[in-house]
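Structure ticket #2291
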Amino acid sequence: YVVGLEDQDEIKMGDLRALCTAGIIFLAHLVLQGGISLLNLPISKEAGFSAHQICFLVSMTFCAIYGCWLWANCTDQIKDRVYGHHKGASYLAEFNCSFQFYDLIISLAVKKLRQTDRIAHHVVALVLAFWSYHDSLLLYYSIFFFGVSEVSSVFLTSVEFFKEFPSLRDPQMSPLGSGANEVSRIMFAGLFLSIRVVYWPYISMQFWGDAMDALWDKEKLQFELICTMLANIGLTLLQFYWGATIAKQVHKKICRPPEMPPTEAKRDYHYGAINKLENGEYSTSKEEAVPLNPSA
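Resolution: structure written out below.
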């Protein structure tokens, strides 16, 4: 498939759309952060993190739904899996590029998100997404890697959120939150292991076959293609690393002996987030918790 003049114009407009999309996400984050900080709630103490989780959830939900739809309905339209152009896949790569730029900046700014593997992932994904939509490189595979693989990320949002605010998942104080946390953890583990640990390597092997054929035929964008192949190795190893961590947690949960019921004293001090501190703010830590039983 040869990219026509109309497609070339569309690709040129991609940079502007990606920049505007990133600006919209940043603006949404700032508005959410300001609004959350004004609320006297447990999540208000980490307004930047909470705003990021909302933006992350909305963005990844879009990528997952749109990516799965493209994967199921449009992949047969891309005859050349390395250089073939497809508008829908290009839009998906544009959006992911915008989000990765936003997520990279926010991860550097918010301490709780400042993790080495997370930042490295964003940098690599940002570059790959840019090459994908700007040069129409591997748009077929971008549907999977920027869309289908993000299905598990939707539930990751809730897992990270409840991890940061433990009082919201306490079964005694928030039964609904506790149930939502358990469902999110189960869905995230199952989807991550099935999509990113099992299905991801299969698609990667197919990608390597197509990429090697393109390199052998000395097609265009050789440097970008080689870099993408190297990045695929690193990202695949990263999925295995994360997958092993998740598998250990699953094994630990399944094989963990039943817990003894907590004593009354422990329940009194267990997550005091439903009580206000002297300064009027809520607490999510055990150290700051106000005892529910004043006589304890």
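Closing remark: Residues 264-278, 281-296 have pLDDT under 50 and may be disordered.
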